[in-house]
Q: What sequence folds into this?
């Protein structure tokens, strides 16, 4: 099993450009998440998808959109990148039963994004 | 929202020493997880521990949910233990479950 995979690993954008970060998991998890991590800080939740077909805002959703393409894939889109979105982005997945996370979240390796 | 506070923010140890990291949270939670972020940025699951005590090799964790804290113990530390340790709590709301992270404890283990 590859676990949680993310592409790309690194990306540099100019202000105003758009891009999509891809995430896939092969653990048959029903819930997936996108976080950002700024220097010296913990992770903050951007969006999550409790199950296929649903998405919800997290703590810092402004400037982002997400798509739960199928059970395996969850993408994060920046429509018009801004320097404040320079960060490391992590995707994660977990299994939830009756709305509760019943096991740990598993994280991908991260995407380091720089917006100039 | 829920507050998660970790202490100490920084910790420097000599190889072989023991340490205790603490996580306090401000509200009732459904579960709590500990992660290690290595110097390359990779996040590694350590424990899923909503309550009670668990052990995995030199690491162990205890969560006392009624008193809203969790402790991570590292015994006989090694240089490979260096990195940032995060506590994260899972708060169930009507819209679903979401994970809130503390700011982490930066651990440096010197040879």
A:
């Amino acid at each position: 099993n590859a676990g949680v995979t993310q592409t790309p690993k690194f990306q540099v954008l100019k202000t105003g450009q758009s891009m999509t970060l891809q995430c896939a998991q092969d653990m048959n998890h029903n819930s997936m998440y996108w976080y950002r991590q700024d220097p010296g800080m913990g992770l903050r939740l951007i969006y999550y998808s409790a199950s296929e077909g649903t998405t919800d805002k997290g703590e810092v959703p402004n400037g982002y959109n997400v798509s739960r393409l199928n059970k395996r894939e969850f993408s994060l889109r920046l429509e018009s990148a801004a320097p404040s979105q320079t960060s490391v982005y992590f995707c994660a997945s977990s299994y939830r039963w009756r709305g509760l996370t019943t096991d740990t979240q598993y994280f991908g390796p991260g995407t380091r994004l720089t917006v100039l | 929202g829920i507050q998660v506070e970790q202490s100490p923010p920084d910790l420097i140890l000599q190889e072989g020493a023991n340490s205790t990291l603490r996580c306090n949270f401000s509200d009732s939670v459904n579960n709590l997880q500990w992660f290690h972020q290595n110097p390359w940025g990779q996040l590694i699951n350590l424990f899923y521990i909503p309550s009670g005590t668990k052990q995995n090799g030199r690491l162990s964790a205890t969560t006392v949910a009624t008193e809203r804290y969790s402790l991570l113990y590292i015994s006989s530390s090694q240089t490979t233990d260096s990195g940032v340790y995060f506590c994260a709590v899972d708060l169930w709301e009507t819209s679903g479950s979401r994970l809130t992270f503390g700011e982490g404890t930066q651990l440096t283990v010197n040879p």
Q: What stands out?
A: Chain B has a mean pLDDT of 91. The first strand of chain B starts at residue 4 and ends at 7.
